[in-house]
Hints:
Elements: H1 6-11, H2 63-71, H3 79-90, H4 110-116, H5 131-150, H6 159-169, H7 171-177, H8 189-204, E1 242-244, E2 251-253, E3 258-265, E4 271-277, E5 282-291, E6 298-299, E7 304-308, E8 319-324, E9 332-333, H9 335-341
Antiparallel strand pairs: 1-8, 2-7, 3-4, 3-6, 4-5, 5-7, 5-8, 8-9
Helix pairs in contact: 2-3, 2-5, 3-8, 5-6, 6-7, 6-8
Amino acid sequence: MGIKRVVAVVATGLVMTPVALGxxxxxxxxxxxxxxxxxxxxxxxxxxxxxxGGKNGVPAKYAPxxxxxxxxxxxxxxxxxxxxxxxxESGFRPDAGSSVGAQGxxxxxxxxxxxxxxxxxxDGRKDVWDPEDAIPAQADFMCSLLKKxxxxxxxxxxxxxxxxxxxxxxxGRVDQYRGVPPESFAQGQTYHYVxxxxxxxxxxxxxxxxxxxxWTVPVNAxxxxxxxxxxxxxxxxxxTGIDFVVPVGTPVTTAGPGTVxxxxxxxxxxxxxxxxxxxxxxxxxxxxxxxxxxAGQKLAGGTQIGLSGATGNVxxxxxxxxxxxxxxxxxxxxxxxxxxxxxxxx
Length: 346
């Protein structure tokens, strides 16, 4: 990615290997100080949630992609980092381009896309202009850089900061400077890019995520039908949550603390409860035989909200459980990584 002013730097003869060049930079002042060597003390975002909507939030239509992409990384990549990069690189515009050829929402250069391009939505194409391909590719690339950063605790800056520097200027520059390049490198482009992303990510991370306190599985049973399993019985063509096969009348509890936003009939979902958690993510509990809560109630994690059943569109009794970025159908994210980030074993 990189920043637009790097074009002028390249013209002076400095050899840079930016992955791409973004659409501009807002010179934010990060809430930390250092020795002008880059990194060193920046507070990384915590938790698995994103702030959805608003001036400092993530557009709701991209939040599931970002959270699923971050969850696919086994290095602990915060979704708010990916979100802040997308805001910095393109302002969340999938049609963004730059004068040096960077393309799409994640501003990949064509050569880098050849290496990291992904068919994220399974349509048979690796399309840099399609966020469903570009965001998973961005996460894969960042995950690989984060893994490199963790191998160098002696380098300046945290692994996340090192990864951001590598994303902006190439990992060779991180090795060259043994960490985030100093402000004197390339007129401060990479140095300020890292600071900007860290500052923005702190604003874009939802509070309250990451703690296992008060979090649990909604029923005492193993998960069965997996997330995104395809089949004709689902109107979307795939399963939007996970199922727990349990007899009618099994107690169902909220997976974590939150506020009830929906409690009652839900069409094909039968009797359902939808809860908004403090990190901005919603969980849904469907096909219930009985609902014990009302909209507006604030609940502690593990509170019984009803009994499992077979109401709505079902082939047998079970609990259908979803995690979402919004209260309604169509905003689903993978529920097992979400629960695991809260310390729940599924």
